[in-house]
Amino acid sequence: LSAKSEAQLTRQAEQLRAYLSSSDSEHTPDLGDLAYTLQVGREAMESRLAFTAATLSELTQKLTDYLAGKLAQGEIEACYRGEVKKHKETLAILNSDDTLQGAIRTWVREGHYTKLLALWVKGLNFDWSCLYGPSSVYGPATPQRVSLPTYPFARERYWVDSKLRNEDRRPLAKESV
Description:
Elements: E1 2-3, H1 6-22, H2 31-40, E2 47-51, H3 56-67, E3 79-83, H4 84-95, H5 98-110, H6 113-120
Antiparallel strand pairs: 1-2, 2-3
Helix pairs in contact: 1-3
């Protein structure tokens, strides 16, 4: 998961947990499809949260634990939280390093996903689609994107001063054609 701020990341985790908790067995998404959608169907933003999960119930439990503050206490296995801003310069160097890109391909091939997650939450650019396809551990079929809760935009309001008089408003300039 990623968001523009810590508060929005928390809200996104709440929405995903609520979605998973409210889904009946007929409408529950496949874990692979859900992961694929979160990986390739969303923009990676500044505040990031990543973890591994083998089942939907494990995913729901890890979201619950994160929201309960257990990550700060180190109580969630294979769970990573990071801010891109704090690591931007270091990761810029690593993102362009061919040796690291080779290591990433090796990690993917050998299933060392926690290393990827630890760097991704700090700002690593990673093409998640390389996890899928003919030579993937997940099989030749690429998962499908599924419908998930939308991004929790900040609830900010902006109002125009209603005391403006009509003569204070200037009409838009007309261009001659």
